[in-house]
Design brief:
The structure is a single chain. It is built from 5 helices and 10 strands, in the order βββαββββαβαβαβα. By secondary structure, it is of the alpha+beta class. It is globular, with a radius of gyration of 21 Å.
Length: about 220
């Protein structure tokens, strides 16, 4: 008989208006059977690391009749979803087996039963690389930054690069990748503290607060 265990979850209590409040979510405790239902092609995951990303805020709005392409539409009373790193506990898919480490779309709970299509990749884990990196530089933010800059943008050594939203998860990586390619990098962000981060921590050559610049063209020219 399959084992039944506790499953603690973060659920959306209310659809969000304005800035999210702690009261919009709650932690609830239920149970889950550690076996994929007979005949199912789904994958049962034990979640190890979860990522909190800006796109999740939009999914907290009350639905307007359209579904997201990710299939992650939030519903009141259900666990919120996002990117995460997980270990396969059981699988109805031939592509995954017990013990596989994977990253992809999961739920904010201890265990999740997900369609295999939501798993983006197996993790061929390298000694010395923390698994948590697959929620950042080796996950969605890093892949987005790298592909956008080198595959789409075709960055060349020594070019001048401007990054908007430069202190965000993707933007900060774009700037650092560009610096590693010997480029001159300027970033914009929405506060003095964020601009200081760009120049003093992430290595940008220059940065400015776009909220204090009435003429963005002039700021870029400067």
């Amino acid at each position: 008989m399959a084992e039944v265990v506790r499953n603690k979850r973060v659920v959306l209590r209310n659809y969000v208006t304005g800035f999210p409040k702690e009261s919009d979510m709650e932690i609830v405790e239920g149970t889950i059977t550690l076996k994929v239902p007979e005949g199912s092609k789904e994958v049962l995951l034990k979640n190890l690391y979860l990522s909190c990303d800006p796109f999740m805020r939009n999914l907290m709005n009350k639905p307007q009749g359209t579904e997201t392409s990710s299939g992650l539409n939030y519903t009141s009373g259900s666990a919120i979803g996002g990117f995460g790193v997980s270990k396969v506990i059981d699988s109805g898919s031939p592509d995954y087996k017990y013990g596989d480490l994977v990253w992809g779309l999961t739920k904010w709970e201890e265990y999740s039963l997900v369609p295999s299509s939501q798993i983006i990749s197996k993790i061929q884990h390298t000694d010395g690389v923390p698994l948590s990196y697959y929620t950042g530089i080796l996950g969605m933010p890093g892949v987005t930054a790298y592909a956008g800059l080198f595959e789409v943008g075709s960055l060349q050594k020594g070019e001048r690069v401007f990054v908007s939203a430069a202190s965000g998860a993707v933007g900060q990586l774009v700037g650092q990748f560009a610096k590693l390619t010997d480029c001159y990098v300027v970033g914009s962000a929405g506060s003095k503290d964020k601009v200081d981060l760009l120049k003093n921590k992430f290595g940008f050559d220059e940065g400015f607060n776009y909220k204090e610049e009435p003429d963005l063209n002039a700021a870029l020219k400067r």
